[in-house]
């Protein structure tokens, strides 16, 4: 019988990311075992529902591994990507009495629910979870629009009010996209300015014209005169971008007015893609987990300026049981494909295309038994035990899978695959076809041309304009350039713009690896790929960082917008078909950097003159986000942050990635015993010594060393970096009193401040290890006093970091990256644990003194 029941408001439940939601009821006394049943009233697919997971909380002072995530390689390899070994979402009471039941009826621990008994004070129940900041991301569309405190229009502006009317082209198609454009128009003016169009004293006209003289599909014209505003474009997507432009101008002005004249906006990048904020490991198989793509999230993505979404899927996810290779597939495939269909249709309704990145063996290994029935597939050992990709059987399998894919999701715009290093493991990856008994007599060029030709033919069974994107990670070898030259027509290239760019720090030259913001680019490899592709006439897309890079993956964005603008200025020098933005560490999240992107995706002329130069764009975005009264302050701070990042940041794999202790910043332990185990032992993890300061990246053959790239240099860089950032923070604090958007400005100050805390932890850790390991006698009184001084400085730093994380839960979060756990790289709870350990270290030093 039912003892008690309660309902959770579904608007409070976020997709994928857990959040504690409270159901209050009168306490009841229970004498026997009881069961809690979670039910969902609605759901379109069997995969739509609750996912119940750990970690255990029997002992609030201990940490245990969470439920093993559902993919094979986490159990075979200790990557530590998905297991939140040292993460709690907050202080909740121990729940040793609660559990879940698995399919065998066995008990499994869980913190998906917690029960408070009658002795708990309900006012002390935590209400701000680790992922609370993401609620705005998935909230209903338009919810961020509020009534604007209006300012007077400029003297020559045309002012819009409720006495105006809106006129829509009668020839607009009756599509969901057009309906959504009209709805957004009405909601914007009503929510922001209290305007409902019902008069006849002026008209806002939206009209399509296939002969309009603008470049690109989404190019448009906005023309303003007395009593009239015209928005002209070729297809409805262009009208939508014209509407977004009007919205931005009016929000920056804080007035529903436009200057008299004509804006002509040419689209510079036809494809502008990003991915969704799935946490590791689900970004590798998003079709298998909760769906983040609700209307609010997709609308924000498109409103930010993107027009394409990409997600990953492995071949084994695309069928439940292949007819070509019986036994190959995944049981959930029919549901996963229906989910993909739903995603593509929702994206199309808001003007976005959907692409699928094909992988092999990431979700499930190729069953060894299948080689018994199909021995022709056997080849050298690959990731996921995947078979030979150059034989007829595999080609038939591929055609079967893609045909089923486009039949189920006919609005899928295209496929893409990493062909040279990882992702889609073929026999010609790294030119290894000589190891395959079937492919050893073929060249990589022959194998690639055949693979891409077959894929292109299969994907175009769904739509004639489908695209196939060949994604090169990095392969600076002649066979790869020959392969690109030999690809069939209809392929689009994708290459990383900022990869392997050299830079200097105090006379020492190093270079970035992947996804850096501290350099402008392009790297030599991108230039080579660009030259080969351009000569062939093949379109090319640049993978680039719009808001976040490897320098700081645990902040929402790197607030060096002057540096971001330099990247946009450089990208404009190339004839690009588009770009992929922000890749996987952050993925799509709106903010000042995506606002800056939105200005840079069009070349805008006003009355036949350049509308805004680079500095003008920065001022516009500063005014849009923080108000015109403080825009000069904001731009000066961005300049300071950009100079510090560009000139001082000590980029290296050791600092940022492998082992990359910077990303865990204020949780880096300060142990007197250097042999004491670290809590985080994968990438972006804790370190016991200073070897991370020595890793150097000039020689691609290996992570090398340079006698000049060392702890002393890394510390020197971080010290100068902090000086620059603190100057910028000081400018922002000066602006704070004059700013009427204090919440937004505080967010910017918090992000810059946590970057300082992270960097300061590295400086102090270098000092700590040098004293502990290199002083000759760690028990010397002078050494102990110096150690104590360092630890007390770090204590102040950690207290500041905890305060920042308490007030701003997005700090420390990261969606992906080897070593990244579900809860991010650090949070207020883990910083507090560091403070406790630091107190132990300080006590031990004082005892010796």
What does this structure look like?
The protein has 849 residues and is α/β, with parallel strands linked by helices. The chain folds into 4 domains: 1-77 and 92-125, no CATH class; 157-259, Chitobiase/beta-hexosaminidase domain 2-like (Chitobiase, domain 2, 2-Layer Sandwich); 293-469 and 481-489, TIM Barrel (Alpha-Beta Barrel); 644-848, no CATH class. The protein is built from 20 helices and 23 strands.
Task: Please sum up the structure shown.
This protein has 20 helices and 23 strands. With 849 residues, the protein is α/β, with parallel strands linked by helices.
Tally of discrete structural domains: 4
Strand content range: 5-15%
Q: Work out the helix count.
A: 20
What separation lies between the terminal Cα atoms?
65 Å
User: Looking across the biggest beta sheet, what order are the strands in?
Assistant: 10-11-12-13-14-15-18-19
The proportion of residues forming helix, as a percent range, comes to: 25-40%
Indicate the structural class. alpha/beta
The shape, in one word, is globular
Q: Largest sheet, if any?
A: 8 strands, parallel, barrel
Radius of gyration: 28 Å
Number of strands: 23
Average of the residue pLDDT scores = 88
Provide the low-confidence segments as ranges: 52-101, 108-112
Topology:
Blueprint: H1 73-76, E1 100-101, E2 107-108, H2 135-138, E3 157-159, E4 164-168, H3 176-193, E5 202-208, E6 220-225, E7 228-233, H4 236-253, E8 257-259, E9 261-267, E10 271-274, H5 295-304, E11 308-314, H6 333-348, E12 353-359, H7 370-373, H8 392-408, E13 414-418, H9 444-459, E14 467-471, H10 478-486, E15 491-496, E16 502-505, E17 508-511, H11 524-536, E18 540-544, H12 561-571, E19 578-581, H13 592-600, E20 602-606, E21 609-610, H14 614-626, H15 631-648, H16 653-656, E22 695-696, E23 704-705, H17 711-736, H18 742-774, H19 781-807, H20 828-848
Parallel strand pairs: 4-5, 5-7, 10-11, 10-19, 11-12, 12-13, 13-14, 14-15, 15-18, 18-19
Antiparallel strand pairs: 1-2, 3-8, 6-7, 6-9, 9-20, 16-17, 20-21, 22-23
Helix pairs in contact: 3-4, 4-14, 8-9, 9-10, 12-13, 12-14, 12-15, 13-14, 14-15, 15-17, 17-18, 18-19, 19-20
């Amino acid at each position: 019988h039912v003892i008690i029941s309660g309902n959770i408001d579904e608007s409070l439940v976020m997709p994928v990311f857990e959040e504690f939601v409270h159901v209050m009821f009168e306490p009841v006394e229970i004498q026997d075992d009881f069961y809690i049943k979670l039910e969902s009233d609605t759901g379109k697919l069997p995969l739509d529902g609750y996912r119940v997971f750990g970690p255990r909380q029997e002992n609030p002072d201990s940490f245990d591994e969470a439920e093993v995530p559902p993919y094979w390689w986490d159990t075979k390899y200790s990557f530590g990507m998905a297991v939140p070994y040292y993460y709690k979402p907050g202080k909740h009471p121990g729940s040793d009495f609660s559990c879940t039941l698995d399919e065998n009826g066995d008990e499994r621990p869980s913190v998906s629910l917690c029960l408070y008994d009658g002795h708990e004070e309900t006012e002390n129940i935590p209400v701000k979870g680790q992922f609370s900041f993401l609620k705005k991301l998935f909230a209903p569309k338009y919810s961020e629009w509020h009534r604007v405190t209006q300012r007077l229009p400029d003297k020559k502006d045309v002012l819009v009010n409720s006495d105006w009317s809106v006129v829509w082209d009668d020839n607009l198609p009756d599509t969901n996209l057009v309906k959504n454009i009209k709805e957004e128009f009405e909601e914007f003016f009503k929510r922001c300015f209290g305007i409902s169009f019902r008069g006849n004293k002026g008209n806002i006209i939206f009209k399509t014209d296939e002969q309009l003289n603008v470049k690109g599909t989404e190019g448009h014209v906005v023309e303003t005169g007395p009593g009239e505003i015209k928005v002209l474009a070729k297809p409805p997507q262009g009208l939508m971008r014209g509407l977004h432009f009007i919205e931005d101008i009016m929000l920056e002005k804080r007035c529903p007015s436009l200057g008299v004249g004509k804006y002509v906006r040419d689209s510079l990048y036809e494809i502008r893609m990003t991915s969704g904020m799935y946490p590791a490991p689900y970004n590798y198989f998003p079709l298998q987990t909760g769906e983040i793509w609700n209307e609010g999230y997709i609308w924000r993505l498109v409103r930010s300026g993107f027009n394409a979404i990409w997600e990953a899927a492995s071949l084994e996810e695309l069928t439940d049981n292949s007819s070509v290779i019986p036994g190959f597939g995944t049981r959930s495939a029919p549901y996963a494909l229906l989910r993909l269909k739903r995603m593509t249709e929702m994206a199309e309704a808001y003007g976005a295309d959907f692409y699928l990145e094909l992988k092999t063996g990431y979700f499930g290994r190729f069953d060894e038994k299948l080689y018994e029935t199909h021995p022709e597939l056997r080849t050298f050992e690959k990731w996921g035990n995947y078979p030979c990709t150059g034989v007829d059987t595999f080609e038939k399998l591929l055609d079967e899978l893609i045909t089923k894919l486009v039949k189920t999701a006919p609005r899928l715009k295209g496929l893409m695959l990493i062909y040279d290093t990882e992702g889609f493991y073929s026999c010609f990856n790294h030119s290894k076809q000589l190891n395959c008994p079937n492919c050893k007599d073929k060249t990589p060029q022959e194998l690639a041309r055949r693979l891409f030709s077959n894929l292109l033919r299969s994907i175009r069974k769904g739509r004639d304009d489908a695209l196939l994107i060949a994604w090169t990670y990095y392969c600076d070898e002649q066979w790869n350039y020959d392969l690109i030259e030999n690809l069939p027509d209809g392929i689009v290239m994708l290459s990383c713009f900022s990869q392997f760019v050299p830079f200097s720090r105090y006379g020492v030259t190093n270079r970035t690896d992947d996804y850096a913001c501290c350099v402008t680019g392009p790297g030599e490899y991108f230039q080579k790929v660009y030259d080969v592709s351009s000569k062939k006439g093949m379109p090319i897309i640049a993978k680039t960082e719009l808001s976040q890079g490897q320098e700081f993956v645990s902040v929402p964005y790197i607030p060096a917008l002057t540096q971001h603008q330099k990247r946009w200025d450089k990208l404009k020098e190339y004839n690009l078909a588009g770009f992929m933005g922000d890749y996987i560490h952050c993925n799509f999240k709106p903010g000042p950097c995506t606002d800056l992107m939105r200005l840079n995706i069009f070349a805008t002329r006003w009355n036949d003159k350049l509308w805004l130069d680079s500095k003008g764009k920065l001022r516009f975005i500063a005014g849009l986000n923080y108000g015109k009264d403080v825009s000069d302050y904001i731009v000066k701070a961005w300049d300071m942050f950009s100079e510090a990042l560009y000139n001082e940041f000590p980029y290296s794999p050791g600092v940022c990635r492998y082992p990359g202790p910077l990303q865990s910043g204020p949780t880096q332990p300060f142990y007197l015993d250097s042999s004491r185990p670290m809590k985080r032992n994968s990438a972006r993890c804790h370190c016991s010594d200073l070897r991370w300061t020595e890793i150097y990246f000039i020689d691609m053959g290996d992570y090398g060393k340079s006698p000049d790239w060392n702890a002393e240099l890394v510390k020197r860089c971080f010290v100068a970096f902090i000086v620059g950032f603190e100057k910028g923070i000081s400018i922002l604090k000066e602006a704070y009193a004059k700013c009427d958007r204090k919440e937004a400005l505080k967010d910017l100050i918090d992000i810059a401040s946590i970057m300082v805390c992270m960097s300061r932890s590295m400086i102090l850790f270098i000092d700590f290890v040098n004293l502990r390991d290199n002083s000759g006698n760690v028990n010397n009184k002078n050494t102990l006093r110096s150690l104590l001084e360092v630890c007390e400085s770090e204590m102040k730093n950690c207290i500041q970091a905890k305060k920042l994380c308490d007030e701003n839960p997005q700090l420390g979060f990261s969606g992906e990256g080897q070593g990244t756990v579900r809860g991010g790289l650090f949070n207020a709870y883990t910083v507090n644990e560091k403070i406790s350990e630091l107190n132990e270290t300080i006590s031990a030093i004082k005892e010796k003194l």
